Amino acid sequence: MMHDERITDVIELRWSAAALARTLAACAGLALVLAVVCSRWQLVVFAAPMLGVLASRHWQRRPPPVAVRSFPGLQRCFEGDEAAATIELQSQSTDVVAEVEVTCPSAMQIQIREGSTAQHVEVTASALNWGRYPLSARVRMEAPGGLLCGTATVEVADVYVFPQAPPQATPIPRTELPNRLGTHLTRHIGPGVEFADIRPYLPGDQLRTVNWAVSARRGSLHVTQRLTDRAADVVVLVDMSAQPAGPATTATERALRGATQVVQTALRNGDRAGLVGLGGRRPRWLNPDIGRRQFYRVLDAALAAGGEFHSMTGTLAPRAAVPPGAIVVAFSTLLDTNFALALIDLRERGHTVVVVDVMDGSPFESENEPILERMWGLQRSAMYRDMRVVGVEVIAWPTDVTVDQAMRLVPPQSTVRRRRT
After folding, report:
1. Who contacts 357 (Cβ-Cβ below 8 Å, separation ≥6)?
2. Which of 2, 229, 348, 358 is the most interior residue, by most CB within 10 Å?
3. For residue 417, what pLDDT is reported?
4. 3-state DSSP call for residue 44?
5. First-to-last CA distance in the chain?
6. What per-residue confidence (pLDDT) applies to 11?
């Protein structure tokens, strides 16, 4: 998926002595030293032209401004896939001596494609971990006299690497679903294919529901009742708050991977899926919707790419982001009190809330201390119990199991009693 090009018009160059100027200075200095040591005035005459050239560098004409063009300026790909980009220098003058070098973060690999020149570089970039990776261009330009050299480094493109979601489907909690046709089997009577019951015919029943075999045996018309299939609204809540250094920071990477798998499963089932990111410097949310395009919208919102998501303030999920009756699946380390309060608020609104604890073990970086780990385990168990008391189900997600396996342990949710207003 590509976006429009990005052009950096004004580049502030840092000027310094070029290789030619340093060479002339070294030769002139050596000649003057030898002239003094050897008492040879001819060496002073030899160094005079070089000194004159060096003295004229302040009067030499500066090169015209250049711009860096990148196409595309915003690139998206998945982990392990390659993203192609073209970076070139643009100038009003044709005699500009300049070159551009493309650099990237250490976690990303780039390759220069064939056909690239000093001012036109075509690269392919790839990364094994999701995130935002800026591509930078290091511009090097020489003044017309060759005595000055200007360098500058600017960000010319952004590559957003999306996490790859496993193909396994993640189950959703069994709870009351909105009255909308879908793929989830319910206990409600209505249009469907699963058999529910047989009852006598009533005026207004459709003839296609008549069970002729039962009607013939009982001597009166009877109809077949079936269980209806409904769709769900799934909203993924991701904890984006700052985490302490150590295992907690590493665990946050699993949060987005789990959220991606839940959204992917919901959209495949024809459900509406949305995203709410709480905490961090830029909390945001995306309206629930259906379709393949919504999957990429969710990934954009998770990485703050594009502009289709909504920014917000505060620590609670907006009501517009979570439709009535939506199922909320949260991914968090559960170390932030504000995030826990947001979960309780959603439960009080009448939503089914399930929290996946991405923290496997204690968040401390110290060596294995049985007493410390035991105390952390007891505190975690007490927190699980307290959250279940208020109606928020918390499940652990160990590192040796997948998120779909962990979510199969979610018990059926009881009917949610909505808060009175």
Report:
1. 332, 333, 334, 380, 394, 395, 396, 397
2. 358
3. 44
4. helix
5. 46
6. 66
Residues 6 or more apart in contact with residue 19 via CB below 8 angstroms: 149
Give per-10-residue mean pLDDT for the chain (421 aa). 60 73 83 83 80 71 75 85 85 70 86 82 88 86 74 85 86 78 74 84 88 90 86 90 73 86 90 90 90 90 85 88 91 89 92 90 70 81 89 88 85 52 39
Helix (H, G, I), strand (E, B) or coil at 50: helix
> Rounded distance, CA 9 to CA 332, Å?
42
Burial of 304 per CB tally in 10 Å (0-12, 13-18, 19+): middle
Contacts of 370 (CB under 8 A, 6+ apart): none
pTM beyond 0.70: the answer is yes
Q: How many residues can be counted in the chain?
A: 421
**Largest Cα–Cα distance in the chain?**
135
For residues 387 and 356, what is the distance between their CA atoms, to the nearest angstrom? Answer: 12
| Cα separation, 236 vs 354, whole angstroms | 10
Identify the bridge partners of residue 272 per DSSP, sorted by sequence position: 233
SS3 33: helix
Calpha distance 354→362 (Å, rounded)? 21
Burial of 61 (0-12, 13-18, 19+ CB in 10 A): exposed
pLDDT digits (tens, 9 = 90+) for 272-302: 999 999 988 889 999 999 888 999 999 999 8
Between vectors from CA 280 to CA 275 and to CA 284, what angle results, nearest 5°?
A: 30
Cβ pair 191, 280 in contact under 8 A: no
> DSSP E strands: which ranges in 54-127?
66-71, 74-78, 83-91, 97-103, 108-112, 120-127
Neighbours of 23 (CB within 10 A): 12
User: CA-CA distance, 87 to 71, in Å (whole number)?
Assistant: 7
Detail the DSSP E strand segments found in 208-366: 222-230, 233-239, 272-278, 284-289, 310-311, 327-332, 352-357
Are β-strands 131-142 and 14-17 bridged in parallel, bridged antiparallel, or unpaired?
Answer: unpaired
In whole angstroms, give the CA distance from residue 87 to residue 67. 10
| Cβ atoms of 290 and 272 closer than 8 Å | yes
